[in-house]
Amino acid sequence: MKIIIGGCGAVGTQLLKMLSNEGHDIVVIENDQSTLEIITANFDVLGLNGSITSFQTLKQAGVRDADLFVAVARELETNITACILAKRLGAEKTIARIDNSEYLQPTNRAHCIGMGIDALVYPQMLAAREIVNLLSQTGTSEVFNFSNGMLSLFVIKLTENAPVIGKTLSEVTKIEGELNYRAVAISRNGKTIIPKGSDTFEYDDVIYVISTPKGISKITQYSGQEKLAPENIMILGGSRIGVRAAGVLENQANIKVIEIDKSKCYELSELLPECLIIHGDGRDTELLRQEGIEKTDVFIAVTGNSETNILTCLQAKKMGVKKTIAAVESLDYIALAENLGIDAIINKKLIAASYILRFTINADVTSFMCLLASDAEVFEFIVRPGAKITKGKLKDIDFPKEATIGGVVRNKTSFIATGETHIKANDHVVVFTLPNAVGRLEEFFN
User: Fold this and answer.
1) Is the pTM of this model over 0.85?
2) Which residues in 230-250 are b (16+ Cβ under 10 Å) and which e?
């Protein structure tokens, strides 16, 4: 696939990292020469110094033959304009990064599509949505829903109290009887394992579990932690992520938002009428005590500073908060934050890049996720009629060993896949895979 990426900020660079070993023909357009030199030195791409809204630069990049044009520059207007021009000049699909939610309103989105923009990516909204998904599960560092929740992927760190420790995958399956969930991968000491029946669960493992709705209640029980129904939530930082998350949650729980900028507090009080807005520094432990941190179920730190978010979450945990969630922009800090005991990490550029990446797969992909604590990826494929995967039972079709099918949605039902499962056309299939198997997966679903 020929892909043109316009802008090499955080999202663009992360997207390049994900695509670098997939064999695509990639052209990068960047107006900052020094940034472009770093990109071309680290990735096998063609770099062009120029503006993504320049006709000449777009033509020089070969936009006429592009399968995908992605505009992820910092300015919304630049991305919108670039996508319109790219489409008119011949690009097959265009994606624009935005930072204004009004573009996502149905009528406005329709206008964008009419102008030639196939998809809009709003990183802050995607990050806020992930925070909301996380809040129902203690012990879960990530949770993703497929086919409107008919299948879900949970990422769980096993505590010393987890009853599955020391048991094999086969033993846990036998205990359950009816198969409503399944461990599809284990992350251990920095290595991702696609488990077989004889593999044993160990303390501190990060387990990736696919579940039907019936199995969700059991998952936290087997992680060694209890399910949490948060009543009191404290959000540090009136960022776009914080505002969107608070807006969804304000009618479900008692929300307190702490913001250090006094003028912004007045804006937040109008945007979030059901929330208590507090002017102050969230790093001040005395302030946290005064605002009832000891009665808080969930503490969410989404300021623009990763270090502040990590440190305040650690402090909140020490003061008795059951669950902490931190927005961490630097990928180098993610493993550190997880090892320090923060329950969940949000990285909006990784979430946004994952959303964009599904458009590069040569198959019908409705969902794609790149996981924080693992080098693995998760796809939701729609099976095309006549696809190779429909030619027999899963145990008989030589499916890649580096990948595993977790669950299937067929019509209005979902179920966990086994070796005896026979995939049919139009099934939605959730696949957990290591990066080196992605190319072979396309052969099975096309």
Assistant:
1) no
2) bebbbbbbbbbbbbbbbbebb
Q: What angle do CA 367, 414, 227 make, to 5 degrees?
A: 85
294-314: buried (b, 16+ CB within 10 Å) or exposed (e) per residue? eebbbbbbbbeebebbbbbbb
Q: How far is CA 142 from the centre of its chain?
A: 8
Asked if 369 and 354 touch (Cβ cutoff 8 Å), the reply is yes
Residues, the chain = 446
Give which of 90, 95, 127, 87 is closest to 7, Cα–Cα. Answer: 95
225/247 Cα distance (integer angstroms) = 28
Query: Of 232, 276, 278, which Cα lies nearest the Cα of 253?
Result: 232
The 10s digit of each residue's pLDDT in 345-372 is 888 888 888 788 778 876 677 776 766 6
Apex CA 157: angle with CA 320 and CA 297, to 5°?
A: 25
pLDDT at 98: 93
CA distance 408 to 383: 10
Which residue type occupies 427? D
Residues 6+ apart with CB under 8 A from 332: none
Q: Which domains does the chain have, with CATH numbers?
A: 2-121 (3.40.50.720), 132-223 (3.30.70.1450), 230-321 (3.40.50.720), 353-445 (3.30.70.1450)
The closest of 195, 208, 188, 209 to 167, measured between CA atoms, is 195
For residue 233, how far is the Cα from the chain centroid? 22
DSSP letters spanning 11-39:
HHHHHHHHHTTTT-EEEEEES-HHHHHHH
Q: Where do we find the tokens 């023909």?
A: 25
The token pair that represents 418 in the structure block: 């086994």
State both tokens at 296: 């808080």
As a whole number, the mean pLDDT across the chain is 87
The answer to whether 312 and 319 have CB atoms below 8 angstroms apart is no
Per-residue pLDDT tens digits for 293-345:
999 999 999 998 999 999 999 999 999 998 899 999 877 787 777 778 788 88
Q: CA nearest 28: which of 14, 39, 20, 42?
A: 39
Cβ contact 349:11 at 8 Å? yes
- Number of helices (H), then strands (E), belonging to the chain: the values are 15, 22
CA 93 – CA 108 distance, rounded (Å): 19
Residue 320's SS3 state is coil
| Separation between Cα atoms, residue 265 and residue 242, nearest integer Å | 13
Q: Which two tokens stand for residue 34?
A: 């020094």
Confirm if 334 and 372 have CB atoms less than 8 A apart.
yes
